[in-house]
Amino acid sequence: MYLENAPFHKPAVALKYSDFVNYGFRYQQIALEKIPTSQGITYIDETELKSLVHGSPQNKKAVCKSVFTQKRAVCIEPDKIVLPLNCSDKENFATLLTGIDKVIVERASEEWLTETQFLIEQEFLKSKSQLIDQLTLLYNETAFNEFLSGLSPARPFYIVLAESLASARSAKQACIHVARTGRLLEDFNQHSFPLFHLGNAIFACIIFDRDREFLKSFCQALTAFFRTNGQTRLHIGFSGFSKVRHKSRSVSKNAQTVMDEAWDALHKSSRRGPYGFCDYELFVNSEIFPIRRIGKSTRAKLAYRLKDCDAFSMAVIKPDFKPWQQFDEVVCPYLAEEDYIVDNDSYVVIRKNKSAAATQQWVKSLETKIIREHDEHLGFSAGVGWYPFLGFRKSEIVTNCAKALLHASFYGPGSTVVFDSLSLHVSGDAYFGEGDLATAVSEYNKGLAISNNDVDLLNSLGVAYGLMNRTKDALLTFDRVLELDSGNFMAWYNKGLGELSSGNDAGAVASFSKALKHTDNKDPDETAVIEDIEFQLGACLFRQEEFAQSVKILEKWYRSTQHDRGAQRCCRYIGVSYYYLKDFKNSSTWLQRALNANQSDAEALSLLGEIYLQTGEGDDIALKFCEKSIEIEPDNYHFRLRYARALSSCARCEEAFDVLSACFRIPSIRAAAWLEAARNFYRNKNLKEGERYAAKVIDSSAAESALKKQAKLLIKHGAAHR
């Protein structure tokens, strides 16, 4: 059985669009070998095929129908053959082979084309199966190493490593967790980046042609995605190729170095709580962190100069345009009468017994004077702090100035900002953006000590609490926001996510519904998450067995996202909902879509088997579906009950009773199992045993009235045939 025999069981492998994106060179080699004289191969879609076909629009339409609907290979004179590609996640996708000898094209029979197409596909599938991890159906470590060795030395790339350790009590549960993690990563991977499982719940993704800002947003979004889908842990580490750090001419050596760096970053992120990520470059080069690091020498000088000072303000000044040396030559004389320290490429100015407002005015006057007397490009930005302020120590004031300087950067060159709660919000976001959630929470709380009713700070704090699995604190924080602003969209949305992670679907439905009610359609930040709210709302309604409402919301969501990767994750919800709504035709359609996305969806397999039994579409096929479902989840007795029903329908009554006997021990399905046993005996002409088990259902206090009614009908039917 699948998870009981893992990793020895080998599930069926299907072709996906990413196979042709990442390993298409293998397919091309096979195709060029199988079709004599072919010289070139490319991938085309329906529009491109129409442009290649000569003749009337009807002729173009007929060729496209043959290729994309009927999945038949066709010849296009004088030297081209088009082979359809059977991708489980992409339609209207084909291969164009060119440069083929004219005689071969003229004599190619339909039978030869069909056989050749089949052989190419089977050989590529065989090739893929050697590169697939059996548990997750993602590429394995062999594929990963092969991919790294084939990287172009000129193309920038990042390696992202992710681990999601399971709190599993058995090997089987751990396997289920790893398989689910792999499916979630596939759903999230809308850009079709190469994705691998390296073993031991370590996953790798290779990202091309992106910068650090994209990587940070990628990690933040992935973390949020895992949290909303019920995963309680996720650690991410990444590193990218750097011309400074990686000077080897060997591509494979550089790739291995980047991999080692990503591994170190992953280890660092694992110490940042249940969710966290780490950028190796930031790990080894703190200078690129947005908040300026104040040197140890500067701190020591400040401590000495301020030891007897009870009140002061301070400014950190940094040039906006000119290089430091040119700036220093001009500005230094203007600071001759000030108490200042040079720290790398900035000045730290101490103004004893001066208020922050006075220092802010002094900074602006200084900048105006320098620009007027010299050059407009000698402008600068500054961050101002002061002491005493709340509980901050003297040694912390210079850091507060650095945070105010980061805050000033949001207003453009020439800005001066006095340290306040918004400065702490900005610094908290900087730590949050680098995956350091604990420090972000500390910054947000300091900001709230200055402005305790700041709803933006509270929202940010609540999100950080949620990502630290401090769900109770997160919910309390969002409630506080809603006390201050009952129509706050982000608070309702974030509260819904908190309710979701705590298992309160009813609370999540209420919060998500409120969020949709208070959406500002002109706000891009709010409209960007509407699709996620609709999906989560539909999933919550499904779990509450509000199937009609769930279908209405999720079908709308699917229509707007069906061309995105991950859109098929709603299919199982819709298919199962239609099953319980007794709409078996629609249920079958959606469950088959769910299986295209996840061949190991045990519930979809089991329900499809049940539908085939009820609609008479094939007892043998139904049995295969049901059998597969209990291979994947052998401990699910609802699936076993359907399996027994399928066995009985296929006249395997003794096997069916053996399966039902195990179900008798489960109180929640015992009565249903007795009823199925009664049907099984009646089908086998054993009326006495059939009546005995039907009577058990009727006499059971736990049996539902519908089951008792069916049992009475069985007894009545049996009596009529004595």
Structural commentary:
58% of the residues lie in helices and 11% in strands. It is of the alpha+beta class and 722 residues long. Among the domains are: 17-129, no CATH class; 141-288, Reverse transcriptase/Diguanylate cyclase domain (Alpha-Beta Plaits); 296-433, Reverse transcriptase/Diguanylate cyclase domain (Alpha-Beta Plaits), CATH 3.30.70; 621-722, Alpha Horseshoe (Serine Threonine Protein Phosphatase 5, Tetratricopeptide repeat), CATH 1.25.40. Strand 2 and strand 3 form a beta hairpin. The two termini are 42 Å apart.
Rounded Rg: 33 Å
Proportion of beta-strand residues: 5-15%
Q: How much is the average pLDDT?
A: 87
Q: Any idea what the CATH architecture of the domain at 141-288 is?
A: 2-Layer Sandwich
Annotated CATH topology of the domain at 141-288: Alpha-Beta Plaits
**Envelope shape:** globular
Q: What is the CA-CA span between the terminal residues?
A: 42 Å
Q: Which sequence of strands runs across the widest sheet?
A: 6-7-5-8-9
Quick recap of the structure?
The chain is an alpha+beta fold and 722 residues long. Helix content is 58%, strand content 11%. The strands form three sheets. The protein has a five-stranded mixed beta sheet, sandwiched between helices. Strands 11-12-10-13-14 form a five-stranded mixed beta sheet, sandwiched between helices.
